[in-house]
# Entry
Amino acid sequence: MSKPNHPTPGRRSLLQAAVAVPAAGAAASVIGTTPAQAAARTGGPAPAVSHDRGFDEDSPRFALAVLPDTQYLFDADSADPEPLKATFRYLVAEREEVNIAFMTHLGDVTEHGTEQEISLAADTFRTIHGKVPYSVLAGNHDINGGTDDQRGDTAYLRAFGPKRFTAMPTFGGSSPDGYNSYHVLRAAGREWLVLALDWRASDKGLAWAQGVLDAHPTLPAVLTTHDIAWAEDDGTAHLSDNGQRLWDRVIRGNDQIFLALGGHYWPPGRTVLTNDAGHDVHVHITNYQDRYYGGAGMIRLYAFDTVRNVVDVETFSPWFLARDPAKRTPLEAETIELTGDVDRFSLAIDFAERFRGFDQVTPPKPRPAHRVMPKGTVAYWRFDAEGLAGAGRPGSTVAAGTVARDLSGNGNDLAVRLLHDSAAEVLTWSAEHHDGQPAHASLRFDGGKGPDRGAVLTTKATAPLNSTKFRKGFTIETFIKLPEPFEGDHAWMGILSWEGRNGDAGKTTGWSTDEPTCSLNVTPERFLQFVLYPDVQDADPTSWSHALPVGRWTHIAVVNDGHRTVMYVDGSKIARNPSQPATGIETLGKPFVIGGTQFAEQFGQGFYGWIGDTRIVDRALEPRDFMTPRA
# Structure
């Protein structure tokens, strides 16, 4: 359908959405038509398909592709499927790099719903079939717009009914009539529900949808349909009559639904409504059929970032994007990418808080030490009862001399030492931990300056760790959390280090010969620094991170392959990793330290915050082998 209005989008600075792709998880349901039932009803299963093409279902970042009304590309004898084929080729080719988990079509696939148009559209979808999972729903142009989902057999149903999706691993099932369906996809380490509802879902269709939600009560849900809202010229959206019915009957009472998407009308628009639980529901209209070349297969990407708690949205045409810029016509250049406030924007969503009311995610259980010590583990310390002598109740002090055992069995035990004249309360035991940390415990360090105070845990100088050269590589991992608020005036803080001075190792390249030969630190501005004076080279290659957040656990991994060092923060490679060669660690046989860095043979301020499990391996690990679990 069209609305005779074509706003000129405003311009704003372009955002680069950073996303990573999850794999889709298989799902099945006894509600309505299951894959097996659909296969039997439609004369056999669809060809087996595979969607595991290099994307990462555990990455905290993924994208949902949304495809609105394509009807003018499938309009009788003026049809041209090439723009949509280009869109599908883009989604397939860029799935791993752009991180696309799923695609959903919002209806009005064709202009008249004839056998010829539907057949051409169905054939076009072969470009993506078996390569990226997707859903399709009927718009009013695909079927008789005066009917609801009880209309019976149509050309649309024969081409885009349950049979098409039966072999798709995300497909959960369809309503008995075949016009409503749902998918369950796995992304960001959890499952998500996508509902695809007919242009006019009947009472039976809405009851089916409620049944799907009831059967998946802990899954955040995206509801897709053809007609849900219309927008004013400024992009302010309002529920349509059908949208109001869906709101009253399905959306407002089901807190799982946090995003509702529709097409049908133009201009595009968006609004935020409040459901019965008092939570936001984002309602968006996506339709570009009124633009040049019927929208040219324009796609909208919703890039979910569950670390940043944001969804970045961008809208563009891969068909025009693929053309030689020098040969693009003015209209093609104008339609490559839309940057108005309703086409390119960001949604701030605290996912944990938004999903708290229904998301009964069971936190991972502690993992025993033997399960997290890969080949080459040199040392592993944790601060629960398995690793820390006398681990007590939260807030209890950890006395000087307390031993944290090296659970690798290599004899690199740590002992607590209070710095300066620090009181015993400077080091306490805590049950706080990173969700992915093997042990559900940590140590709370209350270091500070003016005067300097703190606590450290150190090995003996004779511990085997301190004579290891690590010339073939190493991986050093730890978990830390900085307090919120980050109170007080803090100096440079050591997380871990060796006590040896680089000057004693004969190094001449550093800014000071008193700097430790290897240390991981936090600057007063909360940047991570890893500096290494290698065993082989006279160099000081240094990695620098971004500013760390406060009040949140962070996993840190420093990986060296015997040639070069790379730092990862929460599984993501940081930008400022050195290109200088770095082979081995010059430990000088000095003690290894957690909780501080010795400079000029003196400790200044101790660490301020929490430190959890810490592990050292004598080889370079891949991110998939870090201590954080892979679901």
Remarks:
- The mean pLDDT is 89.
- The chain has eleven helices and 34 strands.
- The radius of gyration is 29 Å.
